[in-house]
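Exercise: predict the fold of this chain.
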Amino acid sequence: MIVFSIYSAGDKCTFEELVKECFSRFPESFSFPKIKKWPDARKLDRPLRVLRKRKLIKGGPKTYFSLTKLGKDKAKEIAKFFSQGRLKI
């Protein structure tokens, strides 16, 4: 979901833009448990580290996030599944 959100946001995605993009696309997954109408940025911390370790993204919250070549390929694959209605989250 995060890789797809970065892909949707553009080449360079700030942390704030990423929180907005993830929450607007996947509100159930990126909201506070008790207040569903607010985004919970803490839910991005560990997954972002894992995506960096897997070499899918680069950057950080103080600058911006962008996808690596491998990340772009994965995001295009995910976008294809969404467009076909095969991937539901």
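Check your answer against the key: The chain has one domain: 2-84.
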